[in-house]
């Protein structure tokens, strides 16, 4: 691991600084250790269980297993293939606002790197966080093929407990993650975490499932996808309220009636 990567990371439990050992990182405060697998530090450790309600944790476990199992097929899902070009263009535009490039950008819930590969050219350093280690391994291959691996840090972590220092990012992105958090409490916690790690004045873009005429036709307001992945679809008011509680909403648009996309800058 590179020095900048070690310096930006913190213990997800007490925000202690971390040191790098042989195949693991260790918190200088609580002394917990976190394995480093294929150059990916892993903060999904059993102690996380205690920070969740039982039902929340069971649903997260179920999602983690499903994401690992489905990682190699994810990039071939028809809906995503059709939507990705439009979604990517809209997300990059919403994120940048008047900015042209960033120093340190993170995507929370990067999966196999569908969006991260397009975000990388916008920034000097790029961080991808995901709950699925298998997805991160595929993401790593993708970033290598894109020639961006040297400036990339991939982190296996729970989005509600980001192992990052306060106010270290000048841009944060999250695409279609928040709807998979299994409770209102955790959905708010993700937004609070993204706000914490973003510098004052930093840019953000967040998207989540839209409860629209289109999605009403094809499913329920909340439920389970195949394989055991929980989802929740937001009305405009619900999504606006969720984001604006933490970050000022400059723009809120629907992407093809499928997801909401909110963006803006963190207040100074
Ligand atoms: Zn610690």
Describe this structure in words.
With 268 residues, this protein is an alpha/beta fold. The chain has a single domain (40-265), classed as Vaccinia Virus protein VP39 (Rossmann fold, 3-Layer(aba) Sandwich), CATH 3.40.50.150. The protein is 34% helix and 27% strand. It contains 8 helices and 13 strands. Strands 7-6-5-8-9-13-12 form a 7-stranded mixed beta sheet, sandwiched between helices. Helix 2 (54-74) packs parallel to helix 5. The model has no long low-confidence stretch (mean pLDDT 94). It binds zinc ion. Zinc ion is lined by residues 11, 13-14, 16, 27, 29-30, 32. Zinc ion (ZN) is lined by residues 11, 13-14, 16, 27, 29-30, 32.
The neighbouring-strand order within the major sheet is 7-6-5-8-9-13-12
Bound molecules: zinc ion
How big a fraction of the residues is strand? 25-35%
At the first level of CATH, the class is: Alpha Beta
Annotation, overall tally of beta strands: 13
Second-tier CATH architecture: 3-Layer(aba) Sandwich
Q: Tell me the number of structural domains.
A: 1
Number of helices: 8
Sequence stretches where pLDDT stays below 50 over 5 or more residues: none
H-E order: HEEEEHHEHEHEEHEHEEHEE
CATH topology: Rossmann fold
What is the percent of helical residues? 25-40%
Question: Which class of secondary structure composition applies to the elements?
Answer: alpha/beta
Shape call: globular
Using the CA coordinates, give the radius of gyration: 17 Å
């Amino acid at each position: 691991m590179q020095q900048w990567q070690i310096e930006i990371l913190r213990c997800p439990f007490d925000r202690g600084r971390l040191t790098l050992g042989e195949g693991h990182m260790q918190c200088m405060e609580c002394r917990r250790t976190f394995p480093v697998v294929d150059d990916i530090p892993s903060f999904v450790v059993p102690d996380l269980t205690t920070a969740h309600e039982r039902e929340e944790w069971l649903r997260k476990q179920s999602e983690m297993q499903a994401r690992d199992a489905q990682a190699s097929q994810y990039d071939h899902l028809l809906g995503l293939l059709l939507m990705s070009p439009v979604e990517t263009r809209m997300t990059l535009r919403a994120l940048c606002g008047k900015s042209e490039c960033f120093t340190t950008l993170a995507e929370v819930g990067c999966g196999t790197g569908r969006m991260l590969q397009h975000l990388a050219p916008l920034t000097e350093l790029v961080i991808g966080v995901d709950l699925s280690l298998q997805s991160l391994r595929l993401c790593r291959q993708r970033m290598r093929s894109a020639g961006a691996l040297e400036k990339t840090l991939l982190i296996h972590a729970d989005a509600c407990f980001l192992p990052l220092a306060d106010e270290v990012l000048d841009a944060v992105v999250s695409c279609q993650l928040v709807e998979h958090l299994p409770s209102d409490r955790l959905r708010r916690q993700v937004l609070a975490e993204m706000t914490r790690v973003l510098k004052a004045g930093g840019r953000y873009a967040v998207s989540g499932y839209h409860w629209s005429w289109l999605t009403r036709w094809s499913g329920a307001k909340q439920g389970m996808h195949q394989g055991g992945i929980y989802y929740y679809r937001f009305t405009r008011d619900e999504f606006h309220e969720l984001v604006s509680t933490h970050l000022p909403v400059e723009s809120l648009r629907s992407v093809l009636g499928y997801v909401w996309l909110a963006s803006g800058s963190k207040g100074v």
